[in-house]
Amino acid sequence: MKLRQNVKHFAAKQALTLPVVGQKVNDRLVDFHADYFAEKSADGRADERRPHLADFFDATMDTYVAALDAGYPEAEAREITHVQANFDFYNHGWTEMMEFPSDELQEHYDRYAGFFERHGITIADPLGAFRPGDGIREAPSTPERLDDPEHPHAEGGFADDVYVETDDGETIVGGQDEPADVSVSDAPGVDDESARSD
């Protein structure tokens, strides 16, 4: 998959494991992702999907931290959560929201099969052990879209590794090294300015 990576991602990585500020960053990232992907929905579907997406992305924040704890670099830990989301989109027939074509689902699963299997994550059950005990809010599916899937926002051909686009527009394989001078204050949600600039 192709992702962007900049100092905010590394700042968020640091912040998510801290008390108080970690919850602020978690909430900001959940809101951002729920809104971002809801807006990629077919016409008239965004509002009905947003609560489900918020619950889903909140659960994937735990996945992200677990992947970091397991030794995955930032880009791969974040990619794991995006793969989970794309499994969920596919299962709901929300193919217009997918970041990679549905014929690459298995390839993305296979790359992280060790992590996914340890946590009970499958294509059919994208959250596995990270599913909250009280569940997540549901939203209507559009299974008819699976018959002839359209992927207007998907980029194919990036299933063999994690690809990162830097702020300079360069695409590199595997992600960047973490900068030495990262400040938690650069993480989205830490202050009003960072919350507006994501």
Task: Describe this structure as you would to a colleague.
The chain is mainly α. The protein is 44% helix and 5% strand. The chain has 7 helices and 3 strands, in the order E-H-H-H-H-H-H-E-E-H. Strand 2 and strand 3 (171-173) form a beta hairpin. It is globular.
From the structure above, extract its key features.
7 helices, three-stranded mixed beta sheet, single chain, 198 residues, disordered C terminus, 3 strands, mainly alpha, DUF6149, 5% strand
Write the layout of secondary structure elements.
Blueprint: E1 2-4, H1 7-15, H2 21-38, H3 46-69, H4 74-92, H5 105-111, H6 113-118, E2 163-165, E3 171-173, H7 192-196
Parallel strand pairs: 1-2
Antiparallel strand pairs: 2-3
Helix pairs in contact: 2-3, 3-4
Region (Disordered): 127-198
InterPro entries: DUF6149
Biased composition (Basic and acidic residues): 144-154
Strand content: under 5%
Strand order across the largest sheet = 1-2-3
Distance between the termini: 21 Å
* Main pleated sheet: 3 strands, mixed
Question: Would you tell me the structural class of the helices and strands?
Answer: mainly alpha
Overall mean pLDDT: 92
Number of helices: 7
- Spell the H/E element sequence: EHHHHHHEEH
Percentage of residues in helical conformation: 40-55%
Could you name the ranges where pLDDT drops below 50 across 5 or more consecutive residues?
Answer: 192-198
Structural shape: globular
Give me the count of strands.
3
Radius of gyration (CA) equals 16 Å
